[in-house]
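Example 3.2
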Amino acid sequence: MIDTHCHILSEYYDNIDEEIEKIKEAGVKAIIVNGTNMKNCQEVLRLVSKYDIVYGAIGFHPTELEDVNLDCLDFIEKNISNDKIVAIGEIGLDYHYDNTDKEKQQLFFRRQLEIASKYHKPVIIHSRDAIGDTYNILKEYSVSGTLHCYSGSLEMAREFIKLGYKLGIGGIITYKNAKTIKEVVRDIDLSYILLETDSPYLTPEPFRGKPNMPSYIPLICNEIASLKGLSNEEVARVTMENANRLFDF
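Structure, written as tokens:
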């Protein structure tokens, strides 16, 4: 299994070495640690050079643009050719808060998509309360990637798939009240699904309320298998193949 989206960073975990050992013991073959700002993107670069199972995505998150200017995009271009940086992310749009600067978010989203297009890198997309604008902007670029922590409708899932995107499914799938995403997972072919945790957030049941970790990926895999009437082994195999096709590990 591969965790295609997590934040195994020192701001969340006291002992990264211990976490990496737990991840390996759980049968997780690789994780993609996502950066969201300049500081933790630099940490991502250090982590990918230290740990064999750690790969990285670097990018600027839509809610962390306060200290970001266009010159910061040079950092992505300078490091995008690192063999273990497999995507630009976590990038996208987030209109959840009342004081959102939508114009700035869209500007940086577009600029990072341009870099992805230039270097033929996939993108890892964050979209909260902004599904329409996310879709309309992605339509403008010949870029593939994943909709991290997908939370949209079944109809929108089909539209993103047509654009060449996969759906990142995480711990929310284990929640009893997560009716929409369960419907999406039942209906969408497994070839369009990726496993992720978003650690330390969105911890699956039965550990909800505690910090999440990539070693919980089997719980997400098991729930998807149950919803689709497949074996755990089949879901693990196909989602790993999906990740291998999308990301150049």
